[in-house]
Amino acid sequence: MRKPIIGGNWKMNRGTPKESKKMLESLILLVKGIKSVDIVICAPFTVLTTIYEILKNTNIKIGAQNMHFEEKGAYTGEISPTFLKDIGVEYVILGHSERRDIFNESDALINKKLKKALSMDLKPIVCIGEHLEEKEAGKTNDIIKYQINETFKNLTKEEILKTVIAYEPIWAIGTGKTATPEQAEEIHIFIRELLIRKFDKETANSIRIQYGGSIKPDNAEDLFNKRNIDGGLVGGASLESDSLFQIIKAADKTYK
Ligand code: PEP
Questions:
Q1: Which of 105, 130, 134, 168 is catalytic?
Q2: C-alpha–C-alpha distance, residues 6 and 240, integer Å
């Protein structure tokens, strides 16, 4: 049994203390009592401390959206995983397509960050996924295979088991175009097969693979009903407590 995980990725769209507090106070009441879903809010760095105070003693965990691969040093403008741990952050998104595409993050760099996060006991949510042109050229599987091999290079079984994979087809992120449950499930099965080959069946079957890309209250349940989809990473629909709650409820209902 894999416990579904719903991550709300606020990106740079929500993050003042005032608006964050309002949203979270409402969400806390809505999700109170939900035990079969891991709920994570991934907020901008500047509001993480505020959020910690609001979310402590609730069933909502805190995630960051990025981190540096070193603990300290001359890296102006970067954030150390030590700082994140110190303020109670539990999860960290790594390799989001916006980091890969806009900030030129490579699989090798994401692998470095991943190894560091794991060594510091931060739980990584690692994003992979193909661009529209790659999908249209029939290259989705090649891209996914490459990303799995390079991003998860030299990971032990124990390490991959602590990692959440988010399959996010880039053409579906923020576009309103969701992969159909069948399309998403096909790739999730493919990812699991790659993990079987890389590790073993038992390990692969224990790893949580989220879907991400325009999840909304009205498509969440159909996606989460699929056997290999273990929750989702949610951007736009995570900004309001009501829509995020509907998605969390869908994950709770479809817990297999
Ligand atoms: C994301 O930010 O990872 C994401 C999936 O965004 P959206 O839900 O808005 O497509």
A1: 168
A2: 14
**pLDDT score, position 256:** 64
Is residue 35 packed enough to be buried (19+ CB in 10 Å), middle (13-18) or exposed (0-12)? exposed
Query: pTM (2 decimals)?
Result: 0.97
Question: Domain tally for the chain?
Answer: 1
186 is known as an active-site residue: no
Give the separation between CA 3 and CA 199, rounded to whole angstroms: 20
Structure-block tokens of residue 47:
């509001």
Domain holding 162: CATH number?
3.20.20.70
CB atoms < 10 A from the CB of 25, how many?
11
Give the pLDDT band of residue 177 (cuts 50, 70, 90): confident
Whether 105 is catalytic:
no
73 Cα–ligand 1 center, Å: 32
Q: How far is the CA of 99 from the centre of ligand 1 (A)?
A: 13
Rounded to the nearest whole angstrom, what is the distance from the C-alpha of residue 214 to the centroid of ligand 1? Answer: 6
Range of the domain at 209: 5-253
